[in-house]
């Protein structure tokens, strides 16, 4: 296993308005590492969607970004309600978000599809009543 | 075409001008933030009427060249402060979104 960098964040579940702080920090860190702009864009959007999901659905959680020589692995771990039907949740347009979330411009049912769109691999480990762990890999 | 050129040609009002020399390429219109993140391309001008602080985060993460607020909507000061801190260009116009898009299309 080669040496790699790890960035660890606690995602605050209470603060919906300022959600996205971890993603913005990741973007900054990756820029400082000199990674290609398109890689940074893919990582930060995938991470932001995941972060928003954790705030909307799971009262926060923890996020890890591991930077290797040829890939970045994002791990999002929460103790939320879990996802009952992953295939349904992956469909564009399906959402269980509330009206107040929608009024802020979220809840379009595009979060998980976007995370898949911008990553090379995405794994969802979820148990109803226990929580969800999402692992996303971006190769470069 | 730079953001500064876009302002001059379209008579947009600069609200936050963090990077006036940023190159503009293409345009995306939308208010649902995940659609913007899924569909807008880096360098696009993003036309929206969304004004909460998440708009700034999405503008930054999607790496758009500028956010153009249509219909004369305005930002609260904390949102402006956030855009300045994150280096996101924000412009405004009284035109509706469709007319703004047509205007942007005609100059880029």
Fill in the CATH topology of chain B: Udp-n-acetylmuramoylalanyl-d-glutamate--2,6- Diaminopimelate Ligase, Chain: A, domain 1
Uncertain segments of chain B are none
* Number of H/I helices of chain A: 5
* Name of the CATH architecture of chain A: 2-Layer Sandwich
Helix/strand order of chain B: HEEHEHEHEH
Indicate the overall shape of chain B.
globular
Secondary-structure-based class of chain A equals alpha+beta
Would you tell me the structural class of the helices and strands of chain B? alpha/beta
CATH topology of chain A: Heat Shock Protein 90
CATH-assigned homologous superfamily of chain B: HprK N-terminal domain-like
CATH architecture type of chain B: 3-Layer(aba) Sandwich
Strand content of chain B: 15-25%
| Overall radius of gyration of chain A | 14 Å
Distance between the termini of chain A: 18 Å
Number of domains in the coordinates of chain B? 1
Relative helix content of chain B:
40-55%
Largest interface: A-B, 25 and 20 residues
Gyration radius over CA of chain B: 12 Å
Major sheet size, sense and barrel closure of chain B: 5 strands, mixed
Helix and strand string of chain A, N-terminal first? EHHEEHHHEE
CATH superfamily of chain A: Histidine kinase-like ATPase, C-terminal domain
Protein architecture, described:
The complex is a heterodimer of chains A (140) and B (108). With 140 residues, chain A is of the alpha+beta class. In chain A, 36% of the residues lie in helices and 29% in strands. Chain A has a five-stranded antiparallel beta sheet, covered by helices on one side. In chain A, strand 4 (121-127) and strand 5 (131-139) form a beta hairpin. Chain A is globular and about 40 Å long. The two termini of chain A are 18 Å apart. Chain B has one domain (3-107): Udp-n-acetylmuramoylalanyl-d-glutamate--2,6- Diaminopimelate Ligase, Chain: A, domain 1. With 108 residues, chain B is an alpha/beta fold. In chain B, helix 3 (53-61) runs parallel beside helix 4. Chain B contains five helices and five strands.
